[in-house]
Structures are given as C-alpha cells and as structure tokens.
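Need NADH dehydrogenase [ubiquinone] 1 beta subcomplex subunit 2, mitochondrial-like's 3D structure for a figure. Predict it.
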Amino acid sequence: MLGRTLLTRALFTKTLKDAASNIKQVKRNGSHGVWTYRVPPPPASKKIVYLAEVLGGICWWWILYHIATEPEHIYGEWPYIDPSTWSDEELGIPPDSNGPLKN
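Structure prediction for NADH dehydrogenase [ubiquinone] 1 beta subcomplex subunit 2, mitochondrial-like:
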C-alpha cells in the first residue's frame, strides 16, 4: 500500500514537472527576424532588397543568355520535319482497302 502511494506520488510530481516545462514558451524565429501576428512584417533592409535584385538579375541574365546562345535546348538539336511529307505506311495507317469499312 505504501509502495503504491509512493509510486503514484512520484508519477504525479513527474507529470507536474513536465507540465511546468511545457508552460515555458520556446523562443521562435530566434535569429530570423521579428515575429509578428496579424500585422504586416517589418520591411526588409535596403541591403537585402538590393542583394535580391542583383541575384534575380543574374539569374535572368543566365537564362536569357543561354536561350540566345544555345537555342537547341529549347527547339531541339535536329531540324524540324514537316509531318505532311510522311506516308501512311510510315505513320502506321493501314491502306483503305483493308478493314471493316470496304467500299
């Protein structure tokens, strides 16, 4: 009886300690700026804005430069073949004399 009471008391105090540690709020976004709720976030610094603009410009330059100098990546490396020059045999179309709709 005494052992059971000590065991329940020990478990109860352990759960109280766990509950007390859960009450403490963990610091959120510790080094990632200011945390806001239902208000607009503070604007980014001019340094961050300029850095983002420069990196975006470099990315677009890279894309447009390679489209202009290596269009094969978009259009393909081989010349475009006109599909109207293909025969029915090349396309796998059976002759009109075959099939259920004979004349």
